[in-house]
Amino acid sequence: xxxxxxxxxxxxxxxxxxxxxxxxxxxxxxxxxxxxxxxxxxxxxxxxxxxxxxxxxxxxxxxxxxxxxxxxxxxxxxxxxxxxxxxxxxxxxxxxxxxxxxxxxxxxxxxxxxxxxxxxxxxxxxxxxxxxxxxxxxxxxxxxxxxxxxxxxxxxxxxxxxxxxxxxxxxxxxxxxxxxxxxxxxxxxxxxxxxxxxxxxxxxxxxxxxxxxxxxxxxxxxxxxxxxxxxxxxxxxxxxxxxxxxxxxxxxxxxxxxxxxxxxxxxxxx
Length: 270
Ligand SMILES: O=P(O)(O)OC[C@H]1O[C@H](O[C@H]2O[C@H](CO)[C@@H](O)[C@H](O)[C@H]2O)[C@H](O)[C@@H](O)[C@@H]1O
Prior knowledge:
binds the ligand O=P(O)(O)OC[C@H]1O[C@H](O[C@H]2O[C@H](CO)[C@@H](O)[C@H](O)[C@H]2O)[C@H](O)[C@@H](O)[C@@H]1O, 2 domains, OTSB-like, magnesium, Rossmann fold, disordered N terminus, metal-binding, four-stranded antiparallel β-sheet, globular, HAD-like_sf, alpha/beta, Alpha-Beta Plaits, Trehalose 6-phosphate phosphatase
């Protein structure tokens, strides 16, 4: 009888974890401000960040300041406003072009008259992007698309993306894929295998880039996707992060033990 297949030379890949925020790390809420983040989650993310040697970043449509507020006191590497904003792992912030900020402000202003007649809509004017939310008035979806199309008409540097009950204007050339690629060129992400987890259409660029770089895209929930793997829900994302952290730290623990006590390490290995 043949021996069971083993691969003694194999080592666990060093992972770089990238995750979306809304609908992936936290449940979708009725309004952007109503999202709930438990202390248990911030503690878990803090630990995950350490376990992955700080190669752990959030790539989101939200502003970086928003993510900092929700995940306080954590200050993770974050790409915000669909990649238009980015804070590296060393804490440095990439400045946004003044022209992009000014154009985003002008787009938000152009949408204001429509909001006056539809107070159920929510406008998020971000630095570098604009989101028009219609979750509380879903019958207005088509009108929202038209209003946003008109609002960006004078700003050819902006394109629209359609997320969960939201139409967003973001600067062309920025998306979650370009953000992931940029992180992967820097420490501590460089040379690692990227994993990106997300739930929305705006996450597709990041799935694509993660896979192009030899990693895996993991899509939460149903819907067409380029991601090679799927995950059921937010609770499963938390469990997956815990599991990945566990297998990542295990060989490291064995190595440390070997340095401290080679005899004990040898005994426990058998
Ligand atoms: O890239 P993400 O982290 O998923 O952010 C995408 C957008 O998320 C937020 O809006 C979404 O979540 C809200 C709270 O659950 C929900 O009310 C809304 O309908 C969703 O579209 C956020 O407000 C946007 O700025 C992000 O772009």
